[in-house]
Amino acid sequence: MVVQQNPIDTSHLEALLDFYSSAGVDCFMGDTPLDWYELTSKQAEQFRQTKAETAPSSVSPSAVVAERQRDTRHAQAPITPAAPAAKQSEQLAAVLPDAQIVAAARDIAASATSLEELRTCLEAFDGCNLKLTAKTLVFADGHPDARLMFVGEAPGRDEDLQGKPFVGRSGQLLDRMLDAIGMERSSTYIANVVPWRPPGNRTPTPQETEICKPFIKRQIELVNPDVLVFLGAASAKTLLGVQDGIRKMRGRWMAYPGSGKEIAAIATYHPAYLLRSPLEKRLSWRDFLAIRQSLKK
Asked: Which residues does UniProt call coiled coil (predicted)?
């Protein structure tokens, strides 16, 4: 008698692996759990205490970050999967996101006289802890002299892998939306408020956003577009200081203080939201028609 066995159902396992992949888990580090938040907190507190004991009574914010960057470039080393927790804590280059770091970010961003210099500054900047977990810096994509500039909130998994903003499914939708109004991606300039991917695609913290804000503001100044489009409410709230939700905000023209001129600014739905809510595409279509009309002026 031959007993026929049912094939093993692997759908649950595949769904679990897909969830881990979407959350940013792409390798297994070891069998022992590791609390990265605790290690980061301990490292930051240890750094703060050390600086408080050794630093002069008056230290400029830029000097704090510059000194930290010199220290971490020599001290930081790759973390091996089997390394003990104590050694891993010593190897972390985390910083305490305080007002001095924010002020230092403003000084460093203001010193850049070109987009290339700004990119170099960001690559050397160690004041944002997201740099520790991201694979690459996602600076920008497109034409540096574009009349139309898009700003999102933060890169995702595909963007982190390729080092360019909006290259995943949402980016492909953005390309099609541009094509619908007779424009190409290469003729625009695309960036994010936060240039490093948050772990698991989580929302950037207010501290992380505040540290990165001087760099995107300087980026907008250097591009100096005629029209600035905020993809989603987060980037508009960060750069315009508005508190309305995207439903109330979208389609309404606002003014952004640019370099020697006021830039016409508008917020619209993020392409990732449109993928989840395709019925809202009709409203985004109106926004893009208004954007095309504004560029004709």
From this structure: none
